Amino acid sequence: MMSENQETCELTLPLGKVKGVKRQSLYDDIYYSFEKIPFGKPPVGELRFKAPQPADPWSGVMDCTHYATKPFQKSFMTGDIDGAEDCLYLNVYSKQLKTDKPLPVMVYIYGGAFTVGEATRELYGPDYFMTKDVVVVTLNYRLDCFGFLSLKDPSVNVPGNAGLKDQVLALKWVKKYISNFNGDDNNITIFGESAGGCSTHFMMCTEQTRGLFHKAIPMSGTVHNYWANSPTEDFAFRLAQQNGYTGENIDAKVLEHLRGVPAIELVNHNLVTPEHRRNGMIFAFGPTVEPYVGEDCVVPKSPVEMAREAWTNELPSMLGGTSFEGLFMYPAVSANLQALDNLSKDPLRMVPFDVRAANTEKDNQEFSQRLIKTYFGDSPPSSKLFMNILDYYSYKIFWHGFNRTLNARLSYAKAPTYFYRFDFDSPTFNFYRSKFCGDNIKTGVAHADDLSYLWRNAASWKLESSSKEFQTIKRMIGIWTAFAASSDPNCPEIGEVTWKPSTKENPKLVLNISDEVKVIDLPEYEKLQVWDGIYKPEQLI
Fold first, then answer.
1. What is the pLDDT of residue 4?
2. Average model confidence (pLDDT) across the chain
3. Which residues contact 231 (CB under 8 A, 6 or more apart)?
């Protein structure tokens, strides 16, 4: 909560007045914080599952001294359900409210498998960014069925992707109003991690955002990851059935029923079957190709096709991931070791569903043997080779998608693409490895571990300035803010290194951010060639 001595500040927007607060960061930087600013009408009642509508103006002074409740969600880790349906709010953190030139703007989209996530200081405190002259925006978007329920009947107007449409609306808001917070509306960078990286890439690919930003950083997730495009199953009908619906599968009736179900019950579903999991499905509700093209359509066709023609092929981008993304799968794999022992009996599970669907049984058997050899050598897969399957997941779920995006950019984009690999391993500060693996695995840079060095979270503490962890924060903030300011991520914090954009002639080169920062050949490169080899060329990029 706000302490008594915190100074408040007021700004007048065209929509109404907002009251923010002057805060002090963990490292004693002063900044201005405006939280829980509405950018969309509450998506409740008739607006549940629908595209968002812009927020109405308000009278009086809106209290923006504390962040909003998270969007409704059910935790993967604990099964707890909390949040609010009324969640379309964003936060603005400005280093300075008056300068000769307005400040670069950085808009962050959180991850969480489109199922969990929140724009709060508990997870995304701007403290480290506030060492630099920037304006940082974090935003909420709807999750799970609230954000991604899709119905085919155009008359009910719920084609899906409401959560992505929330992001589009937030970006329109930023473009229109960020100058009131000393932000430069002609220098906006969007970035996000995991499902937020994938969302960032969707924002890069959709025509709905044309002109709303100027560069982008998808981190550990892109539209080329297979999970970026949910198969169109009758999840809406099945969700209704799980919540007492006994009628026929008629969209208007399904929608009417679902509108009457309390939010807390809607997210408490169990729709992903073992067969879905075998096919690599991680969540029931996520981005999908919309069944028809309405005026606010975000995904009119396959994301791979969208990336080829994206308006942002004219804009600079930076992308990459962490060196052991697959540690993310530790809880799921350790909960079902038997599946690993039985892998030899069902080797097709190794092959991504989109590859299986495009090839013969014989080809797929051959691909599965190729992948088993790549990850297990001559040993049969078993739970003794636990780390090998986590390595496989690093590629299947993560790296192969980013690499496809890099290659798509090198084929279709005219602007630079910078490729990075985050490889800094700390025994104490890689919060996500400890979240996924507890004390069972003590080394390795897991999915999302890079976030520990960009954002202060509730577990962070003030580091010694001589520590490698503090150095890594300085380097990450240096790179990210330099790219936001000038489209060039080279900065004093990385020393004498010269990081050049990737080229088609040498796509292997990557900036490796570890104890040292240097340009190296991507260590994952050879295994990525194996993955490329199981896709048809037209499927890849």
1. 47
2. 95
3. 281, 288
170 falls within a domain: yes
Q: Which of 324, 111, 277, 87 minimizes the C-alpha distance to 197?
A: 111
Residues serving a catalytic function are: 194, 325, 447
- Asked whether the predicted pLDDT for residue 295 surpasses 50, the reply is yes
DSSP structure class, residue 8: E
Judge whether 498 lies within some domain: no
Domain for residue 275, yes or no? yes
DSSP line for 422-454: E----TTT-HHHHHHHTTS---S-BTTGGGGGT
Q: Is the pTM of this model over 0.85?
A: yes
Which are the contacts of 454, defined by CB distance < 8 A and separation ≥ 6?
128, 129, 473, 476, 477, 480
DSSP string over 133-192: S-EEEEE----HHHHH---S-GGG---S-HHHHHHHHHHHHHHHHGGGGTEEEEEEEEEE
DSSP result, 308-322: HH-GGGGS-EEEEEE
Domain hosting 170: range is 8-315
CATH number of the domain that 33 lies in? 3.40.50.1820
Contact (CB, 8 A) for 74 and 28 = no
In percent, the amount of the chain with pLDDT more than 90 equals 90
CA–CA distance, 292 with 196 (Å, rounded to integer): 25
Q: Mind giving me the DSSP string for 448-478? A: TGGGGGTSB-TT--PPPTTSHHHHHHHHHHH
Q: How many domains does the chain have?
A: 1
Strand 16-24 vs strand 30-38: parallel, antiparallel, or unpaired?
antiparallel
Beta carbons within 8 Å of 101's beta carbon, 6+ residues apart: 184
Q: Do 379 and 279 contact (CB within 8 A), yes or no? A: no
Name which of 188, 181, 187 is nearest 34 in CA terms: 181
Buried b (16+ CB within 10 A) or exposed e, 136-162: bbbbbbbbbbbbbbbbeeeebebbbbb
In the chain, what percentage of residues exceed pLDDT 70?
Answer: 99
In a domain, 181, yes or no: yes
DSSP helix/strand/coil, 334: helix
The predicted-structure confidence for 82-103, as pLDDT tens digits, reads as follows: 999 999 999 999 999 999 999 9
Q: E strands along 268-316, which residues? A: none
